[in-house]
């Protein structure tokens, strides 16, 4: 009989980057790359495990913006163009590299991989949510929700109605897509404060994931640290991240992804090839971008990079998957001796790490799942809701305010570089609450405008924008997104209150920012 459990949790999120008004939006490539390198490879992993009758269990949050993009007709058409372009480039690379045996071998790999990616995409009718729903229905995958647009909720508590709207719309959009309500929620950035408890309870949520500090600094101090859930006073369970397993995957010093045999992320054909050759496969304005064709392995801390060897990389992924499984087994054996309840090791990561930043990440997950299913282990894979259902005696504590950001606080999302955002958001939130309270039975066009105002506010609240600004990456884009949604909201507010709604403009904005088609502005009452 198992002595404990391991729960692997993948947080899947991208901001809403849908831009039909732009011919070749750079930001849409974030989504296309994630499909190519993360989501479809994981779907292939799950299908492989099902084919081999491996009894795996895994949990994924799929945020409402990502769900919406995966279901969007326009983005799916653009993705088809993108993957076909990848295949075309890989065909050219077969010819270009045919006289270099070692290089050509990698080119052949990419050509086969891109074709397999397209095949999987078509297998699920060009709707990847069809795949995730299948695994959810089979009981192997538990999908949980997130707040509507991944807003950092503790920083919105000055207007509790805004927090309530984010959570309730996150639950509602999940339910519409999945056909059932979510059991748990991934709090954006694992950011928690006690003001969230009652709102989570109102929405029927049973658990959430916390940074280890949120558990370890809880009051009273939990008996078993992060090796068992704790329960808030209103019955919501919190599960804490296990830092040992986290470091093995995340750490740039001791983490698996830094192995010299793995693919080098920072050398891409989009930057290495001559412009006249690569121009059809990068941004149409001539901006060099990643193509996904990367010929080198990490090699070491050197400018000289050796060619990628797929077989060696896969062998290393299997070795690391086995090592990770053994480590969790050893931990369960050690800690279970001093616990009166079975321990659970919670391993939460960003999904986009597996496949995008760490190319072999999905292969690592597959090997870990295979190793974890072996009967010789003293642990079993489990989802959080299954663990909670099996173990009704859970210690009641008040979790500490925390996040999984730097310093375990909110400073990544609120600092000198981005604090200006919140004054604008809070002003819009107050106006949205006012609108929701004032208009009880509006006519159709005014209802449309009210609903669109709610969408614009939620899109402005995304935690991605302050995060990008703090990390100084695509800062101009993040600032533009905040300002654009705030300006659209303010125009809508003005038009609604003056009873002068511009129907043509409203129709255009509804088509651009079309997230949450069933949203009801009254969630802000």
Automatic annotation (TrEMBL):
UniProt cross-references to CDD domains, sorted A to Z: GH57N_AmyC_like
UniProt xrefs under Gene3D superfamilies: Families 57/38 glycoside transferase, middle domain, Glycoside hydrolase 38, N terminal domain
Annotated Glycoside hydrolase family 57 N-terminal domain residues: 8-306
Any Pfam family matching the protein: Glyco_hydro_57
Keyword match Cell division: no
Nuclease listed as a keyword: no
Domain 1,4-alpha-glucan branching enzyme C-terminal residues, every copy: 425-524
Record key words, sorted: Carbohydrate metabolism
InterPro entries xrefs: 57_glycoside_trans_central, BE_C, Branching_enz_MT3115-like, Glyco_hydro/deAcase_b/a-brl, Glyco_hydro_38_N_sf, Glyco_hydro_57/38_cen_sf, Glyco_hydro_57_N
PANTHER family named among the record's database cross-references: 1,4-ALPHA-GLUCAN BRANCHING ENZYME RV3031-RELATED, 1,4-ALPHA-GLUCAN BRANCHING ENZYME TK1436
Family from the record: Belongs to the glycosyl hydrolase 57 family.
UniProt-recorded name of the protein: DUF1957 domain-containing protein
Native organism: Clostridium brassicae
